[in-house]
Amino acid sequence: MEEFEYTLENEQQFWDELDDIVTAQCPSHQLIDNALRSYLHFTTNFREEYLQSDHDVARCISILLQSQLFEANKQYIRTQLIYCLLQEDELATQHFIAGFLLLDGQQNEATFEMMNQEGCFPRLLELIKHGRAHDARLHRLLLEVLYEMSRMQRLTTEDLRQVDDEFVAGLLQIIEQLSDDVDDPYHYPVIRVLLVLNEQYMVASTSSPEEGQHPPSPLTNRVIKLLGIHGSSYMTFGENIILLLNRETETSLQLLILKLLYLLFTTRATHEYFYTNDLRVLLDVIIRNLLDLPNELISLRHTYLRVLYPLLAHTQLDQAPHYKRDEIVKVLSILGGSANAHWEPADETTLRLVERVAKVPWLRDDDIQEGEVARKLLGISLSPSQTASSISVVDVAAVMEKPGVQTPSRKTEFEEALHDKEGHMNSEPGTIQESNVENVTKKDSPTKRGRRHHPPPIPPMPRLESTKKLPPKTPPRRRTKLKVVSASELPTVGDENAC
C-alpha cells in the first residue's frame, strides 16, 4: 500500500482526517488492512504534535472503536492488532495498539481472552521489562494491559513460569524510586500488577491437575519470595498496599490486597515485613471495614477474618503493649451476634472464624481456657464440628468478585435511608410524591434489609501522620531487622500456609 505524507495546518484538520480514515468503505480484508495501516501511520506521525496527553490518545482510539469500520469487522480487527502487538517493535505504534486493546478489552472480555490464547502474556512481560527507559507513558499503559488481562482469567502455568525474579524486583524497585513523588502515575499500575500476579500464583497452587495429567512441578511465588529475602529493601510497597486498602472501594481490589496480606502473615519469612506502626493502621482499617460491611457480603467478611487471625498471632502485634485489645474483642462479639441484637444471626463459617481469632493468646483472659473462648469471651456456643478449622490458602484463593463492583457500606446505607425518611417527613402536607413514598418503603422493607436500627459506630478512617495520600511518610525503622532467609527456606506456591 502506498503511504501518503500529510500536511496539517491545525488540530481540527487532524481530527477531520482521522474521521475520513475510519469511515472509508472496506469490503475486503485487504482494504481493512490498508485502513488500519493508514490509521496507525497517521496517528503515530502526529502523536507528538496533537496527541500529547493520555486523554487525546484515548479520544483517538475511541474514534476507531466507535467507527463503522470496527463495528462491521470487530473480530478481524482485534485479531490483526493482537498480531501487531506480538510483532511490532516501533514504540509509537505499540502505544496505540496497547491502548486500543485495553479500551476494547474493558468493554469486551473476549478481547483479553484472545490475547491470552495468542500468547500476549510473555510478550507483555518482555515489553514491560525493557520498556520503561524508552517511553514512560507506554510502559504505564502496558502495565495496565497486563493487569486487566490477568485479572479477567486464569493464566497458564507456562505463562507464570515466564515471570522471573528480575521482573518482580524491577516493579518493586520502581515503587521505591518513586516513594517521594505522590503524583507519579506509576504507583497504582505497578502495585496492581504485583497484586494480580500474587493471586495468579495462589490460584495455580490450589488447582487440581486435569484428569490424565501429571501434577506440574510447584511454582515459586516470586512476589512472596522477593519480599521474604529482600523485604527490607522494598518497604514502600508494604506501606502503599495498606494505604490502598484503607481507601479502596472496589471489592475485587480489596480481595487482591487481602490475599497478599494473608500469604505475608502466614509465611514465616515475611511475618515481620511491615513496620509496627503500619500494622496498627492495618488493624484499624480491618476493624472499620468489618463493622461497615453489610450482612450480605459474607465472603468478603470471611476473608477479612482470615487475614485478621495471622495478623494478630504472627506479627509484631503479638508483642506487648497489645494494640486495641478491647476493641478487637468487642468487634468479635458483634460479629458473633452476642453484642448487638439488631444484627442478623451470623453464619456458621463466620462463627468459626470469629472463635479462631478469639483464640489468639493475648486476646484471652488468663482464667479462660482455650476451649471456653467462644462461650465466655464472645457469648456464643459452638459444637465440636463447628470449632474444627478448615482455613487454608484454598479458601482465600477461591474468593472472587467481578471487577468494577463497589463494596456497599452499612453506614452509608443507613444514612441514605435516614435522609430519605427526613425528606419525607419534611415534605409539605398534601404534596408527598408517590415516588418518594415508594423509595422509603423499599429501603425500609424488613424483608429487603433485615433491620433499620442504627448500626454500631464505625471507627473513623485511620489517619496517617503523613500529609501525603500515597505513599505515607516513612516511619522510623523498627529495632529488629528482618531475618535473612535463603531461597531454599521459602515455601513454593504449592505449599499450604494453612492457619
TrEMBL record:
<dbReference type="GO" id="GO:0071933">
    <property type="term" value="F:Arp2/3 complex binding"/>
</dbReference>
<dbReference type="Pfam" id="PF09431">
    <property type="entry name" value="SPIN90_LRD"/>
</dbReference>
<feature type="compositionally biased region" description="Polar residues">
    <location>
        <begin position="428"/>
        <end position="439"/>
    </location>
</feature>
<feature type="region of interest" description="Disordered">
    <location>
        <begin position="421"/>
        <end position="499"/>
    </location>
</feature>
<dbReference type="GO" id="GO:0000147">
    <property type="term" value="P:actin cortical patch assembly"/>
</dbReference>
<dbReference type="InterPro" id="IPR018556">
    <property type="entry name" value="SPIN90/Ldb17_LRD"/>
</dbReference>
<protein>
    <recommendedName>
        <fullName>SPIN90/Ldb17 leucine-rich domain-containing protein</fullName>
    </recommendedName>
</protein>
<dbReference type="GO" id="GO:0006897">
    <property type="term" value="P:endocytosis"/>
</dbReference>
<dbReference type="GO" id="GO:0051666">
    <property type="term" value="P:actin cortical patch localization"/>
</dbReference>
<dbReference type="GO" id="GO:0030479">
    <property type="term" value="C:actin cortical patch"/>
</dbReference>
<dbReference type="InterPro" id="IPR030125">
    <property type="entry name" value="SPIN90/Ldb17"/>
</dbReference>
<feature type="domain" description="SPIN90/Ldb17 leucine-rich">
    <location>
        <begin position="183"/>
        <end position="328"/>
    </location>
</feature>
